[in-house]
């Protein structure tokens, strides 16, 4: 039995709801297409949006649980002071990447809002889709920081099952 706490953060719920929405939209589209030879126009646009949301929300959950891909071999064989430095370097590199995503995503969302750009499929304002990019990048930064604080305080990493 796993001793990990349940993943009940807002990002986990957001990812779950988005994945359920993708499944329902796709299933409904398949059923309608095979029964009527017509297709829903909104399915691709919403599915792509929800897929991006699932990806970023899942990345935030993984960051909080310290389950992102990294070179654990180096971490486990270093003395404590060097391990701390590696943790900080990992965090700094991750924050740098997601801060760049948040910055340029914010600029992009603002431009989409100013230009009143509309989505090609449904004609909805594009900024509604794009605003989630910087928001979720900031959520990942927060979760990475929480994970770093836990690691620096010496809290053990959650039980991770590695499959080979």
Describe the structure.
The protein has 164 residues and is mainly alpha-helical. It has one domain (10-152). 70% of the residues lie in helices and 0% in strands. Helix 1 runs antiparallel to helix 2 (43-64), helix 2 (43-64) packs parallel to helix 6 (132-152) and helix 4 packs antiparallel against helix 6.
Structure in a nutshell:
With 164 residues, the chain is mostly helical.
Number of domains: 1
Number of strands: 0
Structural class designation: mainly alpha
Order of secondary-structure elements: HHHHHH
Rg, nearest Å? 20 Å
Largest sheet descriptor? none
The pLDDT mean sits at 88
Which word captures the global form? Answer: elongated
How much helical structure, as a percent, in the residues?
55-70%
N-C termini distance: 20 Å
The number of helical elements comes to 6
List low-confidence stretches.
none
Strand residues, percent: under 5%
């Amino acid at each position: 039995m796993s001793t990990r706490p349940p993943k009940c953060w807002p990002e986990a719920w957001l990812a779950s709801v988005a994945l359920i929405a993708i499944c329902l939209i796709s299933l409904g589209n398949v059923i309608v297409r095979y029964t009527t030879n017509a297709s829903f126009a909104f399915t691709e646009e919403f599915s792509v949006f929800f897929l991006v949301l699932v990806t970023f929300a899942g990345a935030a959950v993984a960051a909080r649980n310290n389950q992102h891909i990294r070179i654990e071999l180096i971490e486990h064989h270093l003395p404590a002071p060097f391990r701390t430095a590696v943790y900080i370097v990992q965090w700094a590199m991750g924050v740098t990447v997601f801060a760049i995503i948040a910055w340029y995503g914010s600029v992009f969302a603002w431009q989409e809002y100013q230009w009143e750009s509309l989505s090609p499929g449904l004609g909805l304002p594009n900024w509604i889709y794009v605003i989630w990019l910087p928001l979720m990048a900031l959520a990942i930064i927060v979760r990475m920081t929480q994970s770093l604080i836990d690691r620096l305080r010496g809290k053990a990493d959650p039980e991770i099952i590695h499959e080979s």
